Amino acid sequence: MQSRRLLMPTVAASAPCIFGIVGMIHGDIPVEIWVQNPIFIAVFTLAACVVKKAGLRVPARTVVAASALLIGLTFLEPDIDGVHRWLRLPGFTLNAAAVVLPACVAALTRLAGERQAAWCAWGIAFIGLLLYMQPDASQLLAFALPMLVLLIGADIHGTLKWSLSGILALLPLLSWLNPDSLIPVSYTEGILTLLRDQSVLLYLAGIFSLLLVPAGMMIRGIREKRKTWTGVGLYYALMILSAFSGRFPVPFMGYGASSILGYFIAICLD
Known about the structure:
mainly alpha; 12 helices; globular
């Protein structure tokens, strides 16, 4: 049963991955680069099956605290042109926010539903500030808007609610007005351009494939009346929208394990 529930999320993540491979091959990207994403999806799917079968449940507070800690650890790593986004592991470099935010959005939504107002409000504020300081305009926007909707509807004292909501609306705007100076990489941030250069039809099909992840989550959230999935779906929709600027990674399609790992972590902790 658990394997069946993982089937559609895996298919949704695999579709843009396939188009990403097509774009990378056309762009003469080495095989050792484009072969990694399907391997990540296969490995993380198997890991998710094991975790789901074990029935692992992690408290929402623990997820939020761990998310803040891992994003905070990026400030201990050497910066790249003043930007702190990555955790460097043996053989891998992970974008911390892309790994932890999907599960964090779900956990904060759960806390709001359980009327744990203090944890929810201050968790949102602290993580939002960390993302602004990194800086990461894409992840900040993708995190802030679902959390802004959550705050407005949450049972939180009026002054605290509207103060935090104002800050959460302002931070992404400031971040986008002051972009980082990192140079985009063709097979990460520029993967849609590689598809467009090959074929307009491939480009449009690639865009459609990207929408499968947020659409699937939102449909599931609405059908099952689960705000956690709706929030995570909105997070991915905004992350994909940010990628069209050409300055941020395209999740699932562009090279990188971070968004794939974050996606399956969120599914595991559901």
